[in-house]
Amino acid sequence: MVPQGNETDGEMVLDTTTFEQVQQQHQQNKLVVGYALTSKKKKSFLQPKLEVLARKKGISFVSIDQDKPLSEQGPFDVVLHKLLGNEWHEVIEDFEQKHPEVTVLDPPRAIQRIYNRQSMLQGIADLNLADCDGMICVPKQMVVLKDTTSSADEVAEAGLKFPLVAKPLLVDGTAKSHQLFLAYDRLSLAELEPPLVLQEFVNHGGVLFKVFVVGDVIKVVRRFSLPNVSNCEKAKVAGVFQFPRVSSAAASVDKSDLDPRVAELPPKPLLEGLVRELRNRLGLRLFNIDIIREHGSTDVFYVIDINYFPGYGKMPDYEQVFIDFFVNLAQAKHNKRQSVKSGIEM
Q1: CA distance linking residue 340 with residue 176, whole number of Å
Q2: Per the database record, which ranges form the Inositol-tetrakisphosphate 1-kinase N-terminal domain (predicted)?
C-alpha cells in the first residue's frame, strides 16, 4: 500500500533509477539525497536552479520508490521526505534504526507533534528567551472535538474573547486542513465543523512574518494577513468568514508598502533564540514559524502556527541555502568518518 502524500493532489513520484545507478552516483558524488515527495512538492522544491547548483557541488537527488523496501534502495546519505500515514512513518523509523549513518529529514516522531494544532504550540510561552529583545506569546486557545453548538459556554469559561480564529485540529496535507475561519460571535460557532482549535484573534496590523528555518539558517518573509478588527466592527459584524490563503506568493509584501512600525522585522536575537529553542525541543531542522506582532506594540510577538518542510520555493535564495545545508551535512559526515578512522589507527 502506498502511503498518503502530504499534498492536496496526493500523487506520488516514482523514479526509474536502478540500484546499480544509485551506487555509481554514490561513488561519484559527495552526497546522495533520497527523497520521498509528492509530485506537487517535487515540482515546487526541486527547481532547475537547485539541481544545477547541486551537481556543481557533487550532490545528487534520487527519488525513493514507494513500492520497494527502503533498505534495498540507495545507498543514501540523506533521506528527505514529507509524506503522511502510519505505514510510511513505520518504514522511516525502521530505516533510521537500521541505518543510523543516514540523516533523516526529519524524524516522523518529531514531525507528528506539529501535525496536531493542540500540541503544536504547547510550551512556547515557557521557552527560555531572556535577553532576546522581545517577548514571545501564544494566543489563548481551546480544542473542540465534537459539538460546536455547545462550545459557546466552554469558550466563555475558558476566558476566550471574540472574534476567534477556527483551525482544523489536524494537519493532514489536504487543502481543508489549511482552511481558517474567523468567528465573530457565539452563534457562528455552530457553523464550524469539529474537531478544531479556537484561537483568540490578535490584532497585528495586517502583516504576518513567515520565519523559514533550514538547519542553522533563518530567513524572514513578510506576508499580508487579515486587517485589524475594531471594537466597532466586533459590535456590528456577525457570522463566520473564511481567511484568504496568506501562503500564496501574491500575498508577499514589500516593506515600502507599509507603516515602518508594522513592517519592521522581529529582532534578530529574538528569532535566533526562538528558533534555537524550538529546534532543540521539536527535533526538527526544516520548518517555518508564523509570527505576528501585537498591534500597538514594538516587542510583543505571537507564534500562531508551525509547519514542517514548508513551501521553501517562496523563500528568497532557497536554492543556495539548501546547497550550503547539504554541503555542511556532507562535511560533517566526512569529519565523523575521519575521526573514527583516526581513532581506529591509534
Answers
A1: 49
A2: 32-111
- SS3 breakdown of the chain: % helix, strand, coil, rounded to 5? 40, 25, 40
Nearest to 314 by CA among 247, 264, 253: 247
Give the C-alpha separation, 203 to 199, whole Å: 12
Q: How far is it, in rounded angstroms, from Cα 329 to Cα 202?
A: 39
Quick one: pLDDT at residue 59?
96
Specify burial of residue 39 (Cβ count, 10 A radius: 0-12, 13-18, 19+): middle
Feature table: binding site for Mg(2+): 290, 305, 307
Mean pLDDT for the stretch of residues 86-95: 92
The span from the first CA to the last CA of the chain, in angstroms, equals 49
Cα of 130 vs its chain's centroid, Å: 25
**pTM score of the predicted model:** 0.86
Helix 48-56 × helix 318-345 angle, to 10°? 30
- Per residue in 114-138, pLDDT (tens digit) is 999 999 999 898 888 887 889 999 9
Binding site, annotated residues:
41, 82, 117, 167, 178, 199-210, 225, 290, 305, 307, 311
Nine cell digits for residue 309? 518542510
Helix (H, G, I), strand (E, B) or coil at 130: coil
Alpha-carbon gap, residue 7 to 172, rounded angstroms: 8
Q: Residue 262: what pLDDT?
A: 85
In the sheet that holds 164-168, the strands lie side by side as 141-144, 196-200, 164-168, 181-183, 240-242
Confidence at residue 99, expressed as pLDDT on a 0 to 100 scale: 94
pLDDT at 25 over 70: no
- Binding site feature residues for ATP: 117, 167, 199-210, 225
